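so the lab meeting is tmrw and i was supposed to have these ready like two days ago... anyway. pasting both below. for each one the top line is the aa sequence and the line under it is the structure tokens. i havent really looked at them closely yet so no promises
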Amino acid sequence: MTDRQLAVLVRALLDEAAPEPSDAALWAGLRRHTQARIGLGRAGSALPTRHRLELQAAHAAARDAVHSAFDPDVVASALPGVPTVRVRSAAPDRLTYLQRPDLGRRLDDVDRAHLPRDDWDIAFVVADGLSSRAVHEHAAPVIRATTARLPAGWRVAPVVLAEQARVALGDDVAHALGAGMVVVLVGERPGMSAADSLGAYLTYAPRPGRTTDADRNCLSNIRPPLGLPYDTAAAKLASLMTRARELGGTGVSLKDDSGDGVVGVPTVEG
């Protein structure tokens, strides 16, 4: 083996081998359109050290998002002047919540009795889901932007801040409130490129045990600047809510026709 061949081999094992200029331009162009990890190169038979460390950091951020405690004060303080109510699911702690999804869909009986029942048109439920970070950062701006777009006359219930909660808990909460519709803002299951993604689930005539995913409309990946912007999400939600009231239903019977390419469709709970 020549000295040059040895140097090339050592560089391939220890460093990121520089791609050909044409390859570098190709991957750079593709990366502008996705957060997926593509064209990372290799160091020997493994990922380059930098990308391996980035992957480990992303995995740690995802785990932190799932296990971090929800702080309702963070959301309440970002909604000055907006009344809030705090509730819990039937899951007594985070570990039980993760192991027993069914308990996260049921409202605590004591908290149910304290909800202010009235003839509300819409209830917003902020649920920690699988990423407290997502609701801490994005829930309040979405609520403010959405309520600002609702037609005059809508009766909005106090915002419900729900701990250890999954999407279907919103059915129980809204039914106890007497609300005609519910929007559940929930922390979505974190991935390796996003640990702060917020989902918004809209359900008409919510009732415990009645609705399925086919009865809901969902907006996913609300997390500017890399995901759906607040204004876009709010405009979508307000439009869907208005049409749901006219139609008398959500889910497969309600289609988004706003025409900007972001569609509110039924999806599987995160």
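ok protien two:
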Amino acid sequence: MDAGSGFGQYTYYLSGMSDKWRTLAVDVKDEQVADCNNFFRQINRRNVLFRVEDLVTFQDPQAFDLVLSVDVMEHILEDVDVFKNFHASLRPGGMLLISTPSDQGGSDVHGDEESSFIEEHVRDGYNIQEIQEKLRTAGFTRMEANYSYGTPGKISWRLSMKYPILMLGASKAFFVLLPFYYLVTFPFCLLLNWLDTHSKHPTGTGLIVKAWK
């Protein structure tokens, strides 16, 4: 299950790895779900279904071997309810994989007086012990949690995401310059992302959390 599938990019990647894997992708946004179903039909990916569901209430008991949740939990206040639904929906031995901002500046907040760069976040990021305790409350007994977005990943995120969004917010004229901006910055961002994912970080603005049922 792709839990909070958004534009479907992670479902696209997973469904291309094996046509024997079946993926249910759920999201609360009707328009995105409709667009994704239409796109996946056009490319003949018959092993995928997108559906409108609310993760706070949705569960499908013992239906999945893997639940993937990328950049979702920071948007949901009732996170323990969602974790309980994930646990119920996994088969015995199944794994939950979460990527989410940490409390080390994951929402680009560095002090109590600051607000999140991503205003729709309901928390400024998870403490690494906090999220594991919430997963235990939900029924998970085995967990691994590590920081992501160390120094290389943080620089890459700012170059590839934050600064372009801020510039587009300042002037729509930047749409014309955006391809040239990425032509220069993309190779550096790709290298920085590789370094980030192949390194262990003592701290970082993101968390990668695995939990097994």
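from a quick look at the 2nd one: The radius of gyration is 18 Å. Strands lie at 2-3, 23-27, 48-52, 64-70, 90-101, 142-148, 206-212. will dig more after coffe
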